[in-house]
Amino acid sequence: MPTDGQCLARDPIAIPAYLTKAYWWAYVHPQAVRVFERQWLVNVILWGNFGRLRDEALDALGVTLPGRTLQVACVYGDLTSHLAARVADGGRLDVVDVLPIQLENLARKLRPDGPVTLMHGDSAALEAEPASYDRALLFFLLHEQPEQVRRATLAEALRVVRPGGRIVIVDYHRPSALNPLYWPMVAILRTLEPFALDLWKHEIDRWLPASAKFAALERATSFGGLYQLVTITV
Ligand SMILES: C[S@@+](CC[C@H](N)C(=O)[O-])C[C@H]1O[C@@H](n2cnc3c(N)ncnc32)[C@H](O)[C@@H]1O
């Protein structure tokens, strides 16, 4: 397990089939980290928008982050180190991911004395207590998950964030038909990301539990509608 940061090992957790089938090349294969852990590459994959989307997500969470923050799933690039830098007043950041290889990679990117705990777990079945976090971030996770997992991930985020807390989601969104990247993105996502176009068909509200209670949901799209930032105030 990681040597940097603190890592809580738990019972064996199965790797979801969609990761081994559809995303082995991006996250599961031992060479995946070596290929993709490059800031310039994650920026290219997002058409030059990585830094902007990262900073908008962080700003939506808060300028400073006291209390408990949850990042659901690791992300290539420097998102987590920027997030950790905002943790303030004795606050903590937990990052949960279902792949140990991704947690180990993230640990190498973080200061060993930082406020971050890395946790092995499944976004669809978090171990956290209800209402135990002040906020949660889901950065380009939902488009990679099949519908039932996406629903469970959102339900879990709503369960673990306290009333008045915030859930920030950044992900793909169906762009305007006039966006010159519309058809290239259809081709890319259809080839590489089997569940992403499904996310295009509806707004994220669609996968929230029918019984979900929250105070507000705000959505902003950018880059011709290709990306969305959703902020849910619980
Ligand atoms: C956040 S997503 C995509 C992020 C972005 N595309 C990037 O550049 O890294 C990738 C991460 O989600 C994790 N992941 C996928 N399904 C998960 C699940 N059910 N529970 C926890 N982590 C999950 C993967 O292991 C991987 O580390």
Helices, strands, pairings?
Blueprint: E1 6-8, H1 17-22, H2 24-28, H3 30-36, H4 39-45, H5 50-61, E2 68-72, H6 79-86, E3 92-97, H7 100-109, E4 116-120, E5 133-139, H8 147-160, E6 161-172, H9 182-192, H10 196-201, E7 216-222, E8 227-233
This protein binds S-adenosylmethionine.
Provide structural commentary.
The protein is α/β, with parallel strands linked by helices and 234 residues long. Helix content is 37%, strand content 22%. An eight-stranded mixed β-sheet has the order 1-4-3-2-5-6-8-7. β7 and β8 form a beta hairpin. α5 packs parallel to α6. The longest helix has 14 residues. The radius of gyration is 17 Å and the shape is globular. The structure holds S-adenosylmethionine (SAM).
Could you say which structural class the secondary elements and strand pairing correspond to? alpha/beta
| Strand composition percent | 15-25%
Please write the string of helix (H) and strand (E) elements: EHHHHHEHEHEEHEHHEE
Q: What hetero molecules are bound to the protein chains?
A: S-adenosylmethionine
Biggest beta sheet attributes: 8 strands, mixed
Strand order of the largest sheet: 1-4-3-2-5-6-8-7
C-alpha-based Rg, rounded: 17 Å
Instruction: Assign an overall shape.
Output: globular
- For the residues shown, what is the average pLDDT? 95
| Distance, first to last CA | 33 Å
**Total strand segments:** 8
Query: Uncertain regions: pLDDT < 50 for 5+ in a row?
Result: 1-5
